[in-house]
Amino acid sequence: MGKVNRLQKEQKKKTDAEFLVDAIVTGMLEKKGNQITVLDLKPTGKAPSDFFVVTHADSHTQVIAIARSVEEEVERLTGEKPVYREGYTNAEWILLDYINVVVHVFLKEQRDFYGIEKFWADANFRNIE
After folding, report:
1. What is each CA distance from 51 to 80, 88, 113, 120, in whole angstroms?
2. pLDDT in tens, 2-31
3. Domain locations in the chain?
């Protein structure tokens, strides 16, 4: 009982966007997303959302698997679905837009090429081990 109350208190401290980020990271970890990075964009004052969550995979198949896992975990844990999704056809960069949080699942070569984290250098970064 004490453990459940502690978890509920921790969840109440988090914003909806932060809870959504946790669900997204869980989905990425389920399918072994590489170098998961959470960018807190709020300090920039000019971002299109509060957070970006970025990861990459080594194959097209894994890119799709990670994105699907994110969608499943987010819906299971929060009941939310992305308002926009793009990139499943070529599976090189899948974007899932949850308004306050945008998910980027890249093929490794595409992540290296676009360097999305460099564009938001003034954001707060958190790397997931």
Report:
1. 16, 21, 21, 11
2. 444 444 445 555 678 888 999 999 999 999
3. 14-128
Q: Which two tokens stand for residue 88?
A: 């499943």
Other C-beta atoms within 10 Å of 50: how many?
20
Which CATH number is associated with domain 14-128?
3.30.460.10
pTM above threshold 0.70:
yes
16-30 and 60-78 helices cross at what angle (nearest 10)? Answer: 140
Q: Which residues contact 39 (CB under 8 A, 6 or more apart)?
A: 51, 52, 53, 54, 117, 120, 123, 124, 125
What's the per-residue H, E or C state across the chain?
Answer: CHHHHHHHHHHHHCCHHHHHHHHHHHHHHHCCCEEEEEEECHHHCCCCCCEEEEEEECCHHHHHHHHHHHHHHHHHHHCCCCCEEECCCCCCEEEEECCCEEEEEEEHHHHHHHCHHHHCCCCEEEEEC
First to last CA, the chain: 29
